[in-house]
Design the sequence.
């Protein structure tokens, strides 16, 4: 083969290789462009996926929140249904109490013993015995005055002082054991259970079967209506039929009108309230916080004596000083 032929063959190979390289480059270029497009598609798809994932997470959070709100709503509904059932029960019970109490509304007032003759004073002390009792007894002994103590036996009471009250010649009256309005005025049975408890305690300590009583709040109290409409109309009659004499008052010391009432106000309340009356039953308190009542007692006794009053303890035969029954 001649040199010239070899050169032609070499040129042909070079041209062929150049064409192959060019074709390969074109293919590579075209594939690169396609790859760019594919990458763009992948990026777009990833963006779409990320957005969809974010939306899904938001929806999951909203779904969880909705579930919590639904559970809260269910709990609130259950609570309201329970409360509603409780209210319905209370309404039913109240209607039953009103129906049961309606037969008491037309009862005549409880009878009273005759009013005393002459200017006589009955000093009475509710809610004791207490830490003030011994001091009150000392003052009464000093002035040779007999009084009446309507006793209780709950947390702050000093029931152990009852024998000393009795030994000093004072009347032991019953004021219920608990002095708990919601308890004692919930029904006839509840009242007498409480009254019998303090009666038994007094008898145990003194041997006295007391028939002298005072209702917490007095016979005129209206708070009892919250617990049993008509209960006072019933009880004021019932205790009388059972041989008790209940006592309200016609002079108040106002020592229970505030946690602490000044001795001067207590004195003026009693002395002013006693003016122009033939006989008086004075309401005072022997609770633990009523130290000013004891402070006022000497001036009360002296002031009432100067108005012409003598003093005596209440007995079952005394006039009851009944208030108008308001329930």
Sequence:
């Amino acid at each position: 083969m001649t040199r010239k032929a070899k050169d032609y063959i070499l040129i042909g190979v070079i041209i062929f290789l150049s064409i192959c390289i060019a074709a390969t480059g074109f293919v590579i270029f075209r594939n690169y462009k396609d790859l760019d497009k594919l990458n763009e598609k992948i990026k777009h798809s990833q963006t779409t996926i990320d957005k969809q994932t974010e939306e899904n997470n938001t929806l999951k959070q909203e779904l969880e929140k909705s579930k919590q709100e639904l559970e809260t709503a269910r709990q609130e509904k259950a609570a309201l249904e329970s409360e509603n059932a409780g209210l319905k029960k209370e309404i039913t019970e109240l209607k039953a109490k009103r129906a049961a109490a309606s037969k008491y509304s037309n009862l005549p007032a409880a009878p009273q013993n005759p009013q005393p003759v002459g200017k006589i004073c009955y000093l009475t002390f509710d809610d004791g015995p207490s830490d003030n009792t011994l001091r009150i007894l000392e003052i009464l002994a000093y002035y040779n005055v007999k009084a009446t103590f309507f006793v209780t036996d709950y947390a702050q009471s000093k029931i152990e002082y009852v024998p000393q009250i009795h030994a000093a010649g004072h009347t032991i009256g019953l004021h219920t054991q608990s002095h708990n309005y919601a308890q004692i005025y919930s029904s006839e049975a509840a009242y007498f259970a409480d009254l019998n408890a303090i009666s038994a305690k007094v008898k145990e300590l003194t041997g006295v079967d007391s028939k002298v009583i005072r209702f917490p709040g007095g016979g005129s109290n209206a708070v009892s209506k919250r617990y049993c409409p008509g209960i006072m109309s019933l009880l004021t009659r019932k205790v009388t039929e059972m041989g008790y004499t209940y006592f309200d008052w016609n002079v108040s010391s106002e020592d229970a009108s505030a946690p602490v009432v000044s001795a001067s106000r207590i004195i003026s309340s009693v002395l002013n309230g006693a003016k122009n009356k033939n006989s008086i039953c004075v309401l005072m308190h022997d609770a633990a916080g009523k130290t000013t009542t004891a402070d006022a007692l000497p001036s009360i006794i002296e002031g009432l004596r100067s108005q012409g009053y003598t003093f005596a303890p209440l007995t079952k035969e005394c006039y009851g000083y009944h208030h108008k029954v308001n329930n």
Q: What stands out?
A: The radius of gyration is 47 Å. DSSP finds eight helices and eight strands in the chain. The chain has two domains: 3-104, 120-311.
